[in-house]
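Data availability (excerpt). The following record was deposited with the supplementary files.
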Amino acid sequence: MNKINFINPLPPKKQEELQRWYNQTLYAVGFTLFILTSISLYQCWQMTKIRSLFISEKNTMAQITVENDLKKLQEKETTLAQRIKKIENLETTLKNPTLFLDKLSELIPADVALLNVKNKKKHFELEGQAFSAHAVMAFVQVLSKDKFFKNVHIVSMAQESVSSLKQKFVRFILKGTVET
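Predicted structure:
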């Protein structure tokens, strides 16, 4: 009978070839896994980089919109401050008719009635009527003595009568300037 070799069924040359094939396959699979893992890690790194760029771009855009909104708000604040300043100035300047009319109402005598009041910047014109020329003259003197009214003078004065009341009155026009 022939001897059967159960321990080394393959000849040594075949065993070396199998061993070489096994090692090469193992190296090839390991290298392939290494390449695939490296590519995956590189893609993950790129995705995180893209995400961080996207987030930073989003933050930059948000920051730009916030800065633009802040500039707009500052511009609105300055325009509102200017408008408030104009309103406050109107309370104290001649453009505010209440100051002029308040001063005029303090100084007007009872026997003088104003029919028309014009106030343009520093110049004013008063049209009215009184019962006598002396009342008009007294009114002009009162206005001239006040520090607010300057250069008050009579432009015209005429006596008129109302037939239904059978009463005479003096119609007048005064002009002058206003001081602040």
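Summary of structural features: The mean pLDDT is 83.
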